Amino acid sequence: MIRRAFVIGHPVGHSRSPLIHGHWLARYGIAGSYERVEVPPEDLAPFLSRVETDGWVGGNVTVPHKEAACRLVGETTARARRLGSVNTLWLADGRLHGDTTDGEGFLASLADAVGPCWMDEVGTVLILGAGGAARAIVGALLDAGANRIVLANRTAARACGLASLAPSAIEAVPWEAIPNVLPRANLLVNTTQCGMKGQPRLELDLARLAEEAIVADIVYVPLETELLASARARGLRTVDGLGMLLHQAVPGFERWFGVRPDVTPELRAVVEADI
Ligand code: ATR
Q1: Which residue range is the domain that position 86 belongs to?
Q2: Contact 255/58 with Cβ under 8 angstroms?
Q3: What are phi and psi of 195, to 5 degrees?
Q4: Can you give the CATH number for the domain in which 175 is found?
Q5: Nearest to residue 66, comparing CAs of 46, 91, 39?
Q6: For residue 73, which phi and psi values (nearest 5 degrees)?
């Protein structure tokens, strides 16, 4: 029988996940499908209650359902509970399970770009933003052992809220304080929408970053954001947002179809062509 996985969202048409999973299904010769399903908020609970009877093996959850799905799913991983968010669901023992893989995806993309020993180079991490993506990345960094994280967010209260996850490891600073933190940051991560096509620019002078610093952006439209372009112009190492998108998909595919897929240059090219 064909294994069927979904991506649910509202709207869901923009999701690039079908491209990623479709590429892997073809590459590994798996008789499966990965389908977009438009699910408005009022249909989320009924949809999740019918996953097994409707013949799905699981799927992805995207905006705006990540938090609501976390509350509705029977079993969640510790990291999903901590972040209050899920992006990957699967059936096991007749129950729906949920996990959040964005943070793991970010760390894998960092390892791809910088090497497996990236953690040795990460002293102080400066994170811009305190939304869902920042939460996932902060959670994964804490799990990996990072203990000097500085959070700057336009809305200060949100950064303080996220810092309370681990007060001894995370410091929240005002958005205006970013230039003062740059000289001691080894890793700078933009998790805001700034720099995305159609969104405001990220006004940042990277001159104060150390030469060995790494600059990461989770924005991938465009792939080379102004932030990454100015980091490259300074000769700094960069991590673009496409790697995180590709790597966050790996655990789901493995759960649904039984093969741990590789993130290859071919896959990158397929998704890049669609950006
Ligand atoms: P995501 O799930 O992608 O993280 P989100 O939870 O809506 O999305 O979070 C968006 C993040 O981008 C927030 O940190 C937001 O800052 P606020 O908490 O102040 O809203 C940040 N952001 C969005 N637009 C921004 C802008 N123009 N300048 C600075 N930060 C911005």
Answers
A1: 3-101+249-272
A2: yes
A3: 95, -15
A4: 3.40.50.720
A5: 39
A6: -80, 140
Does the interface ipTM go beyond 0.95? yes
Q: Whose CA is nearest to atom 21 of ligand 1?
A: 192
Structure tokens at 206: 């990277």
Q: Is the beta carbon of 200 within 6 A of some atom in ligand 1?
A: yes
Atom of ligand 1 nearest to the CA of 192: 12
Residue 63 sits in a domain whose CATH number is 3.40.50.10860
Question: What count of residues does the chain have?
Answer: 275
| Beta carbon of 232 within 6 Å of any ligand 1 atom | no
Residue closest via CA to ligand 1's atom 3 equals 133
Q: Is 220 annotated as a binding residue?
A: yes
User: Mind listing the pLDDT tens digit for each residue in 189-216?
Assistant: 999 999 999 999 999 999 999 999 999 9
For the CA of 218, the nearest atom of ligand 1: 3
pTM over 0.80: yes
